[in-house]
Amino acid sequence: MKLAATAFAVTGLLAAAPPTATDSPPRAAAAVTGSPSAEAVTGSPSAGVAVKMPAAVADRLGTDRGALLDAVSADVLARSHDARGLAPKAAVGRLAAEGRKVVVDVREVSGDWARGVAYVEASRARHGEPEGWLYIAHREDGRWVPGLEGDREFAEHVARSPLVGTAERRTMTAYAERKATPEAQVGILANTNGLLLPWMPDYYMTVTGGPHSHDGATGYWSALDFAGGNASGLVRSSREGTATSMCGAGGGWTRVIHPGGFSTDYYHMRNTTYYNGTSIGRSALLGTIGTDTCAGGSATGAHVHWSLRTYDANYNGQYTWLNGRTIGGWTWWNGSSQYSGCGTRLGVTACPGTAIYNRTS
Question: Cross-referenced Gene3D superfamilies, in alphabetical order (predicted)?
Fold first, then answer.
């Protein structure tokens, strides 16, 4: 990964810098207990799954927590690209043999509702990123019905759960009004509703990786890597929305859900601000470029791995093509291979190794 700036793309320097957004205060981070689950019985979906759960949440769930963990774990393993089609025990075993964990983080409980984050760690043998989902679960007729991002149940739970705040529900509902097609590379669907690059407008960072897949291997080329520059390494939200720290307090992975059908992921950060479904403004501080691998993968040199996702009417988040889409005033194009693609703006081409300014138009 190239970390030295070899050129400046400074087109459009006369654009006025917008005011700095006020960072929303995060909710308090919870303590972590239980890894792996003590309740899991051999053969249950949560057997061998790492569990994060504040003591107060565990107390509120009581003996019912094992059933919740089983329900969420089963959904996670069914949705994971690397575990799909395998029995839960076999899936967890295969991932464990690669040094990877399945993590269920239960963050909030209220009555018959529970909410949290779940993820499957990426391989630490190469530069790749994890699979992760927000989830909401509802206890119905004595059993837990979980919904992960993309499930019909998740959309229904967002509309009803008291664990979803008014602003967050409004933001999440907005992107469900129409389907965003990931295959659309040009035209009206390439409009990303004014998303910025992940630092302050009118400052620069260096492109260290052009469009590539989120996991560095397969799937749509949805990600970019950035480092250095004069933004003090501070990583900021591409637009307003609701933010969630996917790895919990201190972890380097944050997801922000924006109005209009998109969300963005930020990975490898350090000094992160903890968010838990928190409303934030544009350019809210998320963390600092780093080499954190709280959910697997690897990183060579401090940088931020930024990824673009789209949603459909079922709140199904999927990593999507960057090709032909404009982010931070730059239109991004795939290269002949992953990481080699470039951005263009007003006749200037910025390939890996080029320092670029973040623009609002």
Answer: Glucose Permease (Domain IIA)
CATH number at residue 312: 2.70.70.10
Hey, what's the torsion of the CAs at 360, 358, 278, 323, to 10 degrees?
90
Q: For residue 89, give its domain range.
A: 50-164
Q: Are 218 and 295 contained in the same domain?
A: yes
Q: How confident is the model at residue 54 (pLDDT cuts 50, 70, 90)?
A: very high
CA distance 277 to 280: 9
The answer on 326 and 204 residing in a single domain is: yes
Rounded alpha-carbon distances, angstroms, from residue 102 to 68, 98, 174: 15, 12, 30
Of 144-153, 254-263, 328-337, give the range with the top mean pLDDT.
328-337
